[in-house]
Design a protein that fits this description.
It is a single chain. By secondary structure, this protein is of the alpha+beta class. Strands 29, 31, 32, 34, 40, 41, 42 and 50 form an 8-stranded antiparallel sheet that branches. Strands 30, 33, 35, 36, 37, 38, 39 and 49 form an 8-stranded antiparallel sheet that branches. Helix 10 crosses helix 11.
Length: 1224
């Protein structure tokens, strides 16, 4: 049903209540008002904004006043006629579901409104109640008392795109405001752009048209028709309202950037934050970027903040709506908030528009120290700014202040005032003008559970129901602005129902969830209102509460230590409870390290289901950080095994020499994890911090401490911003035409070269038949060779293949020193040294020589140039080399990198741009062959895992990239991977995407099973406890209540306990199966047939190795697979067996030497034993011998008791120095 028909039914008395669905509240009110006027209906509008700002008592009176106005309106409309002839009114309730929801409805509002409706009904006043909602989903959330009244529902588009409907509306409005004197003929063409007019804009256009038409009316004309000239004149002046101050102001009064000297930094930031939003709105929408909707200029008086705001309006071409304090402050309750809401509503109608409020601190101060009006205004402007964030209108809120510290912090959270720009004093140059520095973490993590060799790293999102990651009983979470670690207490292992690992996992999951509340502004939670001053202690407390709620529901027992850090601007805030650790490293020095919280040695503070500790006991720290600082978080498995000085040294080894913020945090976590486990597994020779503390406490302990190890590293770097100057919209048709034109030009050029070849060279007497074959293959490189073979013969084919093949780089390291063309990088001063060596075992001392790493725990960087630049477009690219990990590598790389011509060998390091990277990478159980391509400035890793050869023998690695964008990876001349580059790398966006317009039907049921509604929990089920006192337990005879406390029998599992009751599941009769989202073509997808093509000029090794000794050899880069195979046969295949024999001989020699050394040591021990034997004195016995014999029986008895005592002593020792979490 259309809105006109619905209101017509109201006028005829056929409807008492209806619903209107329209996303734009203003359009809804305007449409109802215009059509009601045509039908003779009076409209009484109930505005939700005005209602909700009053107190409950005022609300009740206000609603009754609205009812009284409805009575007055209907009486006025009927002229106090008899009740049967009374005129009807429409009571329009705007955004009804917001204040009469199904849940938590305000009873005083609901009761007052229902009472008013009953009064109208009893007095016989005819009316129709029209309830407005922004969507049908909102309508369903309305209170049933009102929803049940609705007799019909009409849906109105926020912007009517039909010119036919617009003509009908415009005709009605013209007739209403002119008294039927102005008519709109059907032959008059409406401007196409008017199809986007809102209701308010339609009324404005109608008034302008009527004014123009009536001005030319003659006295004898009863009706005047609108002409095309009238519409054209009005359309040309569209938007030139009295409110358009920026455009309407005289030219000489407008301010531009040229009128403001200096402040280049501020201008650039305002241009990025505000002007680009208006000028490049399509680019923002296409890229899915949410631009800032609020910008704050702050600084001392007289620095030109207002002047800059006016320049922004002029430069952007947007309206400039200047708000003044007198316009916003009113004496009546609620009027100030209405004025503020009206200003934002006006800005939306005038979009694109900039709202500017100077001296914002005068009205929007901190709510805890200001009056009631200030608090209401802060709430109102926060609501308006939130609405801007989700609104598509191009409106930006720009404010200025001299005292930013006085503003309420809720306004400065993301999504409201996103950017704060400081404007320094005039004359302080641009260095005094800067943006408040904002930082974030560049993160990495690694961990190993106790007794496991599996390295745990962050899984891809969506693979777990938890946002945290579990490492044994440890867990952690990471976000760009926060991270945390927790260590589940191990002492629960013997308690039924206890799961410390799950308890710690939930703790970190809920901490992550609490931080997410600051991202989603739709979450209504007053505990997280202040983004800037968030405390990690508060986050820990809320997470602890949610974990315990789960524990009570799931009957979970456990406890954990926890450490949470949050980064706000340049401030790192830390909350720690227990023995987890944090260290901040700057410039190879630790600037901060926390102390562990211990009740006693090896007994940390902890949060748990029955813990006496609480988040209030947590340590709180605040550290000022700067760009390049490195934050290390870890459980006690790290800090109990690795000394602080070692951590700093390991971090320093992996830190970029000049730019720490460019370092790789993953390398740091891997190295720290490796060192911690290395110490933990050594209980004889290693020294550890745990050993040191144990000795200080009076316990004997040797070596590291075996425990779960979790390491997080976050490098402080500036928050990433997008430079829209580099984002340019490319029309797809122009793009395709340009590519087609380029291809056509290349084809014509190739045809011309073919003609020249045929005319001038093909008939030369010195050119052989093979020469012509070679020329043919060079001219048509993409023609399959076997198609040409029958024409020229097999011999000619082979000749052509060999003649066209070219080798661009080949290296066998035949000399005893590193060849001069290999250049060691000077980017770092501590790069490892290279040497040429055949290694400890080899097939041939000369042939097996290769480039070998020689120093442990070092970076290596060395490179060499090609003989000539290799452009592999339309050619096959082959990269092949051998690597021998004779040191039995535990963690390190063995890959090559191929670089473009614009490459400086002396600056070569891990940040250097390369075309491709290929080869093995081994670290613990993580073993793979890397195949990485650089495409459009981004490195793309292969999406599958290729196992490398990881023993101590030489292995040959071959990569083949073909012009048809397929690839092959060969290991020892056997294929281990192949396929399409488009399928095994994510170079391009997907071809199809889920249709954003499609959504699952509301009535779709995808739950296969449901709880049986007939199943009933047996009586007394929950009365059965999970554990009971052991009836067989006996109180020890030596138990002392004063010393040992009151004795309680140990608890055992209750055999009668059946666990929590759950209703049985039955098949869902409404189940429809899983809903499949329809797919559409991705508009962002564009095919690219040149992904494989590179221009390469250098090859090199950029590695990190814990243990050195890897030998690289027999490197070749060519465009022929056959050439590479021939080279491999010559340098690799023929020496495989000989190398195995050499390795077997070396192993046998080492084993024989070991046996000889062992035998020698055993002989020496036997001699020492003989020297220690006591001398005899014939058959005589000395007195002490008789005494020994006399005590033999006693010693035998003591000996029998010794195993028991030793066992008790061993248990005591374990109790003193065992796992750090064995006590609660």
């Amino acid at each position: 049903m259309a809105l006109r028909e619905l209101l017509g039914g109201a006028a005829a008395g056929l409807l008492d209540a209806a619903a209107l669905v329209c996303a734009d509240s203003r359009d809804a009110a305007e449409s109802v008002g215009s059509l009601s006027g045509e039908l003779g209906l009076e409209v009484v509008e109930v505005d939700i904004v005005a209602a909700m700002l009053e107190s409950p008592q005022d609300l009740r009176r206000w609603i009754m006043n609205s009812v009284a106005r409805a009575v007055e309106t209907t009486a006025r409309a009927s002229g106090m006629a008899p009740q049967s002839e009374l005129g009807r009114s429409v009571i329009l309730v705007m955004d009804a579901p917001a204040w009469i929801p199904a849940k938590d409805a305000r009873e005083e509002l609901l009761g007052a409104f229902l009472l008013g409706m009953r009064i109208l009904r009893e007095r016989g006043r005819p009316y129709m109640l029209l309830l407005h909602a922004k969507s049908r989903e909102d309508l369903e959330r309305m209170h049933p008392a009102f929803r049940d009244l609705v007799q019909d529902t009409v849906e109105l588009a926020a912007t009517d795109g039909s010119l036919g409907d617009l003509r009908q509306r415009l005709s009605g409005i013209l007739a209403q405001i002119s008294g039927d004197k102005v008519i709109l003929p059907s032959h008059v063409t409406l401007p196409r752009q008017w199809s986007e007019l809102t209701g308010a804009q339609t009324h404005l256009m109608a008034r302008r048209i009527a004014t123009r038409v009536l001005a030319r009316q003659n006295g004898d004309e009863a009706r005047v028709a609108v002409q095309d000239d009238d519409l054209a004149a009005v359309a040309s002046s569209q938007g030139q309202t009295a409110m358009r101050r920026a455009q309407a102001m005289p030219k000489e009064s407008r301010v531009t950037w040229d009128d403001i000297g200096g402040y280049a930094r501020v201008k650039a930031l305002l241009q990025e934050s505000v002007i680009w939003f208006h000028r490049h709105a399509d680019a923002f929408a296409r890229l899915g970027i949410q631009p800032p909707k609020g910008v704050l200029l702050y600084g001392p008086p007289g620095t030109g903040k207002t002047l800059m705001a006016r320049a922004v309006a002029s430069e952007s071409g947007a309206d400039f709506l200047l708000l003044s304090l007198p316009e916003l402050v009113h004496g009546h309750v609620g009027d100030s908030e209405k004025a503020l809401a009206a200003a934002f509503r006006e800005a939306r109608k005038r979009a694109p528009c900039i709202i500017f409020l100077d001296e914002i601190d005068a009205l929007f101060q901190r709510r805890d120290g200001a009056g009631d009006l200030n608090a209401k205004l802060v709430s109102q402007v926060a609501m308006e700014l939130d609405a801007l964030r989700w609104d598509s209108a191009q409106v930006v809120f720009l404010a200025a202040t001299n005292h930013p510290e006085m503003l309420d912090a809720s306004l400065l959270r993301p999504g409201r005032i996103d950017r704060a720009i400081e404007v320094g004093p005039a004359g302080a140059a641009d260095s005094a003008t800067h943006v408040r520095k904002s930082f974030q973490f560049m993160l990495a993590a690694a961990g190993k559970a106790k007794g496991s060799d599996v390295v745990v790293k962050s899984p891809p999102p969506g693979q777990s129901e938890y946002a945290s990651v579990q490492v044994g009983e440890d867990s952690y979470f990471m976000r760009p602005d926060s991270m945390g670690v927790a260590d589940g207490v191990g002492g629960w292992s013997e308690v039924k129902g206890a799961n410390a690992a799950l308890y710690s996992l939930k703790m970190m999951h809920y901490a992550h969830s609490e931080f997410e509340k600051y991202d989603d502004l739709t979450i209504i939670d007053y505990t997280v209102d202040d983004y800037a001053t968030v405390s990690p202690k508060d986050v820990l407390a809320r997470a602890y509460q949610r974990v315990n709620e789960d524990a009570a529901r799931e009957k979970l027992l456990g406890s954990t230590t926890a450490l949470i850090v949050v980064l706000r601007d340049n401030e790192l805030r830390v909350a720690n409870l227990g023995d987890c650790g944090i260290m901040v490293v700057r410039g190879h020095e630790a600037i901060f390290r926390n102390e562990e919280q211990q009740h006693s040695f090896n007994f940390p503070y902890q949060l748990g289901t029955i813990s006496k500790d609480s988040p209030a006991d947590a340590q709180l720290f605040t550290i000022k950080v700067q760009e390049g600082d490195i934050v290390v978080l870890g459980t006690d498995g790290l800090f109990d095994n690795v000394f602080d000085e070692e951590i700093v040294d390991i971090i320093g080894v992996h830190t970029h020499a000049s730019k720490p913020e460019l370092s790789d945090p993953q390398r740091m976590t891997d190295a720290l994890l490796f060192r911690a486990r290395e110490v933990a597994e050594d209980n004889r020779s290693a020294s550890s911090p745990f050993q040191t503390r144990a000795i200080q406490e009076g316990f004997y302990y040797q070596g590291g401490k075996m425990d779960d190890v979790t390491v997080l590293v976050g490098i402080i770097r500036p928050a990433v911003t997008l430079d829209l100057e580099h984002v340019k919209k490319v029309d797809k048709s122009e793009f395709d035409e340009s590519r087609a034109g380029q291809a056509s030009t290349e084809l014509q050029s190739r045809k011309r070269s073919h003609t020249i070849e045929s005319d001038e060279e093909s008939d030369r007497p010195d050119r052989t038949r093979s020469d012509r074959v070679v020329a043919c293959f060079q001219t048509f490189p993409n023609v399959p060779t076997m198609l040409l073979a029958p024409t020229f013969g097999l011999a000619a084919l082979l000749v052509s293949q060999l003649a066209s093949a070219k080798t661009y780089f080949k290296e066998t390291f035949s000399t005893s020193t590193v060849p001069s063309r290999w250049v060691v990088s000077e980017k770092r001063t501590d790069f490892g040294e290279w040497k040429v060596s055949p290694g400890k075992f080899y097939a041939d001392a000369d042939v097996s020589r290769g480039l070998q790493t020689s120093q442990d725990a070092r970076f290596y960087a060395i490179s060499a140039p090609f003989d000539s630049e290799f452009d592999n477009k339309d050619k096959t690219l082959v990269v092949q080399f051998s690597a021998k990990f004779e040191q039995n590598i535990d963690c390190g790389g063995g890959y090559v990198k191929v670089m473009p011509k614009a490459f400086d060998p002396k600056e070569f390091d891990g940040d250097t741009i390369y075309n491709l990277m290929f080869g093995p990478d081994i670290c613990g159980n993580s073993k793979k062959i890397h195949v990485i391509f650089n495409y459009k400035g981004q490195n793309h890793l292969i999406t599958r895992t290729i196992e490398p050869g990881s023993d101590q023998m030489t292995h040959l690695y071959t990569l083949v990239v073909k012009p048809d964008q397929t690839y092959q990876v060969l290991l020892d001349q056997k294929e281990v991977a192949s396929g399409s580059m488009l399928e095994d790398w994510n170079f391009l966006p997907p071809k199809t995407i889920p249709d954003p317009a499609a959504k699952k039907p509301d009535d779709w049921v995808d739950e296969a099973e449901i709880d049986d509604p007939t199943d009933v929990k047996p009586a007394g089920w929950d009365d059965i406890p999970a554990t009971i006192p052991d009836p067989k337990a006996v109180r020890p005879e030596d138990w002392d209540d004063e010393m040992d406390g009151e004795w309680e029998a140990p608890r055992i599992e209750n055999p009668d306990y059946k666990g929590p009751w759950l209703p049985k599941r039955i098949p869902n009769p409404k189940y429809k199966g899983p809903w499949v989202h329809p797919k559409i073509e991705n508009p962002e997808y564009a095919a690219d047939d040149s992904i494989y093509a590179y221009k390469s000029a250098f090859i090199g090794f950029d590695l990190w190795q814990v243990k050195s000794g890897t030998i690289f050899d027999n490197i070749i880069v060519t465009d022929s697979v056959d050439e590479a195979k021939a080279f491999a046969d010559k340098t690799f295949a023929k020496f495989v067996d000989a190398e195995k024999e050499a390795k077997a001989k070396l192993d046998a020699d080492e084993e024989a030497k070991l046996k000889a050394d062992t035998k020698k040591d055993d002989g020496k021990k036997e001699d020492d034993k003989k020297d220690d034997e006591p001398a005899t004195n014939g058959g005589m016995k000395f007195e002490f011998e008789e005494e020994v014999e006399a005590k033999t029986e006693t010693k035998e008895e003591v000996k029998a008791e010794e195993p028991k005592k030793a066992e008790t002593k061993e248990e005591a020792k374990k109790s003193e120095t065992g796992d750090s979490h064995d006590e609660l």
